[in-house]
Amino acid sequence: MAGNIWTRIYDRRFHLVWMGWLLMLSLAGTILTVKYWGQLGNARYDVMVLEVLIVSFFAALYGYRLSYRAARLANSFQHIAVQTRDGDLIQMFEEFRRVRRALKASSDNRSLDADTVEAAKPLKIGDRKVRPADVIKKVFNYYEATAIGVKRHALDEQMIKSWWRKSYILDWMDFAEYIRAKRKRDRLPRLFIEYESLVRRWATEEEQGLL
User: If DSSP codes are grouped into helix, strand and coil, which group holds residue 32?
Assistant: First the structure.
């Protein structure tokens, strides 16, 4: 499946290293200030110590924020790039496209309902048969994981939006009735809720009326 992403932001070492830098820079600034002003015999060096301590802390904090954003952008690019070369992902989305075409061919509804999906026979793709419901679940789980990454700031929303917006919205439109029926039937009111939340946030006013 797709490579391991988002690890840098969620790796405790990433944050521990930057916490260490915050402390080291603040301490170094304090020591240098004490030494310098102490040598000059300035009675107000304690005020300067505090000022340097504050400046050092915020300088390190700014560096941390820049690094955090760089890691988030790197995660987002990796998330997008892996879809062009990961065989499992390519196969998953190809199966999804074929399942959707087959379901639409057997239904007159714009949004495919639960009866249409659940009653669909396994579809032969290559040398194996797949259940439409299983294929939809895999793709929507992937969408949900991506949406969670955006919500938790492990992925940059604007970069993900530029890649996924159209697919997210069209795929939700096609299977919204099916997902709502599953939520009610399986008593899972939050099933794919983060995915739906992104869809509604990214949709235009015209698209909102179709959701």
Answer: helix
Q: Give me the residues paired with residue 124 across strands.
A: 129
Contacts of 82 (CB under 8 A, 6+ apart): 2, 3, 5, 89
Q: Work out the angle at residue 194's Cα, subtended by the Cα atoms of residues 110 and 109, and round it to the nearest 5 degrees.
A: 5
Q: What residues form DSSP beta bridges with 129?
A: 124
pLDDT at 36 over 50: yes
Q: Which residue has the tokens 């940059």?
A: 156
Q: Which of 77, 76, 71, 25 is nearest to 52 (CA)?
A: 25
pLDDT at 1: 40
Question: Would the pLDDT of 15 be above 80?
Answer: no
> Mean pLDDT throughout 126-138?
92
Q: How many CA atoms lie within 13 A of 61 on its CB side?
A: 7
Backbone angles phi, psi at 129, to 5 degrees: -105, 140
- Look at residues 177, 156, 195 and name the one whose alpha carbon lies nearest to residue 77: 156
DSSP 98-140: HHHHHHHHT---SS--HHHHHHPPPEEETTEEE-HHHHHHHHH
Amino acid identity, position 166 = K
Whether the pTM exceeds 0.90: the reply is no
Could you tell me if residue 201 is left (phi over 0), alpha (psi between -120 and 50 degrees) or otherwise beta? alpha
C-alpha R_g of the chain: 26
